[in-house]
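Q&A log
Question type: sequence-to-structure
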Amino acid sequence: MSLFDLPRIPESEVMDDSGEVDAYSSAAAQAFLDKIDDTFVAHALRLLRGRESGRALDIGTGPGQIVLKLARRLPGWHFTAVDRSPNMIAQARRNAVSVAPGFSPASSSVPDLRVQFLIADGNRLDFPGQSFDFVLCNSVLHHLAEPQNVLSEIARLVKPDGAILLRDLRRPSRLGYRLHVRWYGRHYSGLMYRLYCASVRAAYTVPELEALLRRSPLAAPSANGIATRVFTHARTHLGIERPLA
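Response status: OK
Response body:
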């Protein structure tokens, strides 16, 4: 590590504190996060290449905003959304009410949108291998103590010709950190700003993510030889992607 590299400081694996969940789900935070989520949805739709139906898994769904957006855009798809945090899953079910008024937050499934919300650990999921045509994961990687476990689980669960989209924050250099969080975190305040700064410090760099990918089963090409690769989005995000074969 050079003098210009910002050391990574891992973050808690589970965001379940009610104050943190409320800050993340607040109207002020969501007004900005909504635009970021839209870029994730657009990226996902490109990877799915117009496929009209299938099964998708969202690992670390949080308050469920992305999976609910995808469900509205993909009426032929069925979605399973998991998170280790009971408070986050409860918030996701409450958010589902706004887009499916007949839905009860006491239920795990949203029939109108074909979405099921479950409390589950992405490191060990109780689904048969090759169950999903698409696996997505947003802003989870920086929370994981052992990211290889989740990458291996994704490789087990996605079909050989399936699509993959993992996206997370991108850690800047030591010199650029203060300006980075002040500028890109300018829409946040209080606890949400502190959470954002901690998440940026816990995030990966491109070389680090490339090394994780090389060591994981995801490095193997898909059924039609399509490679899984690391990508960047603006100056703020990076991730791992593979389109449908």
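Response note: The radius of gyration is 17 Å.
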